[in-house]
Amino acid sequence: MAIIKKSLSDQIYDELKMEIITKKILFGSKIVNRNLQERFQVSSSPIRDAINRLYADGLIQSIDNTGALVVNFDVDFYVEVNEILLGITNTGIKLAFQKSDHKEVADILKEYISLQKKSIGTEKYFEYDYEFHKVFIVFSKNSRLKKLYKKFNVLHEVLLRGYYEKEVFKMQEHSIEIHEKMAEAFSENDLEECFRLNEEHYKKAEELFKEVFLRIGEEAIKTTIDD
């Protein structure tokens, strides 16, 4: 087995990305180059490389000479990302339907569903959810679509991890139910049903996010009044 050695910029990128995803680095906050150099004990080059990659992912809003500004999410931002992902995944489903063996695709989808069931409530669940939808993207045999999916899924995952704390089990169980129906529809050559289920999947996520965001706003107002 080949041993893959990560560069300094790769390691810093991975660390900062996870800290943004888990909200250790707050949305809308400033990350300072000099502080990161001191923390990681590196020169400015790997810091700049890591920040540029985060910017390409959409996690960084702007960059200046001193550092970078992390994106500040709101409900409109989430809705737009969700709409784009729905379009990307529907395109993946359509192209995979045209270019690939339906049974082969369905069998791989079912493998990821099995892994999702074993991982509800854990960090691994997000990985397997990503891989489930990625199956369609891979079998679409379109490399540019794959890059788009990866970019916008990072933003989607940040929002899911950041806000679905109380609803996470309900959301994940519902997603698995939809995924099972999608795999079945694809294996039965029912493209329209697969589209419908995929849209239901993303619309349900949007509804849950709006509920959570509304609750967060109400709690913030209550805290302000109490203070």
From TrEMBL:
GO terms for molecular function: DNA binding; DNA-binding transcription factor activity. Keywords: DNA-binding, Transcription, Transcription regulation. InterPro entries: GntR_C, TF_FadR/GntR_C, Tscrpt_reg_HTH_GntR, WH-like_DNA-bd_sf, WH_DNA-bd_sf. PANTHER family: GLUCONATE OPERON TRANSCRIPTIONAL REPRESSOR, TRANSCRIPTIONAL REGULATOR, GNTR FAMILY. SMART domains: HTH_GNTR. It holds the Pfam family GntR. This is GntR family transcriptional regulator. Residues 6-73 form the HTH gntR-type domain. It comes from Clostridium cadaveris.
